Amino acid sequence: MDVLDIARKLVATGPVCDPCLGRPFADRSFGLTNAERGKSLRVSIALADDEPYESPEREACWVCEGHTDRFDDYAELVAEQLTDVSFGTYQVGTRAPPLVEENERLFREDAGMDPEAGELFKSEFNREVGKRVGHLTETEVDFERPDVLAILDLERAGEDPSDHAVDVQVNPAFVYGRYRKLERDIPQTEWPCRECGATGVQLSTKTGDEPCEHCGGSGFLYDDSVEGFVAPHVLEAMDGDEAVFHGAGREDVDALMLGTGRPFVVEVKTPRARSPDVEALEAEINEAAAESVEVEGLRLATHEMVERVKELDASKTYRAEVEFGDEVGEEDLAAAVDELDGATITQHTPQRVDHRRASLDRIRTVYDISAEQVDSTHATVEIHGEGGLYIKELISGDEGRTEPSLAGLLGVDAVVTALDVLAVEGEDEDFDDPEYIRDEN
User: Fold this and answer.
1) What is the gyration radius of the CA atoms in the chain, in angstroms?
2) Are 57 and 87 members of one domain?
3) Which one of 2, 153, 239, 252 is the catalytic residue?
């Protein structure tokens, strides 16, 4: 059966608008809209059968029930709802009425066609409304991860598209950078008090209105955090609803983070401004957090950067101030350090974290280690180690849980009195890969 014979059968099912007539043949011709394709078929039938050309009004179409006449209405409604939202990319999705989807299936089957031949109603609606949205907002469509997603609910709208028929989802925006922590006893993220459940109230009292003795009534164990110094500024700059701080691992609360800094991403949910001035934002953060935290290299990033940060397989460089329990000679220290250089270390879960870590043995490598003796009972040790290497235990031995260790090789007690992180880098690749930085063009 040729195309015109099939088209005659489709037209014979009842009043059918040009877009609905053209859709079943969308995979047989290119460069035309379904409306143009349907009109061409109808004209060809009229000429072949020597009959007058007649095209029903779209509102009268039994297949789409007039929805193909409302592309402009829905596009304008989407653009109106996005007036106060800054975005560069979008995507349109459609919830079609079940009756329309059933009509489409019957429409094709009655003509002996595959029920999914050509293009389906939802695909056409997405495309036609989508290209109009792009024209109205001067933005680009993105089928992978758009800045905004508009869902058209045709069933809920009935005959009035303005009747709450569009759900707009604003996807998160991301700012990447590196931070340095210049003050000890500042955690990376806010640390809620477990004793009061972050309420700040002494739960053991009958009245329930006395300040928590553990946190002093603040609800948090530490007044400041890297997150607290950074995230609120990013949230305000992007005019979002919530900011989530993601760090590439974390240093101990009592450790400094120096050198090249630690990678992080701030994820802002429901941002109304996606392209803040990152240089001004960086300066603002550094001024507010002076002498405690500083950030550098702020830039807009993609969603993939969050997973990259959270799953980073990083090597780290540390500087540890070490105190020995007895006098240590320079030659003995040099020999012990030489033994650890390039060594494979077995570490059972340290005692200080075994309440929140699985009890198991971890195998890690010391890539490089050096030591400078300060006096007979003090030294400065610099270690470049595989991610997950516990440095304090590498020094102390943790009562035999870490083998080998500096203390074990020297035969004296050794403890880290101050720890600084100097670098956090990807094991096998450049972490600051521009692939994961958002293209503002």
Assistant:
1) 33
2) yes
3) 252
Q: Which of 11, 172, 21 shows the shortest CA–CA distance to 87? A: 172
Q: Is the pTM of this model over 0.90?
A: no
Residue 321 has pLDDT above 80, yes or no: yes
- 341 in catalytic set: no
Counting the structural domains of the chain, the total is 3
Clarify whether residues 360 and 411 are in a common domain: yes
Rounded Cα distance between 153 and 79, Å, is 16
Q: How far apart, in whole angstroms, are the C-alpha atoms of residue 412 and residue 47?
A: 102
pLDDT above 60: residue 167: yes
Contact yes or no for 107/165 (Cβ under 8 A): no
Residue 217 domain-assigned?
no
- The mean pLDDT of 411-421, rounded to a whole number, is 96
Alpha-carbon distance of 365 to 348, in angstroms, equals: 14
Q: Are 17 and 99 in a shared domain?
A: yes
Domain that holds residue 232: 173-190+225-310
Q: Amino acid letter at 412?
A: V
In the block, residue with structure tokens 């109603």: 121
**Is the per-residue pLDDT at 193 higher than 90?**
no
pLDDT at residue 51 is higher than 90? no
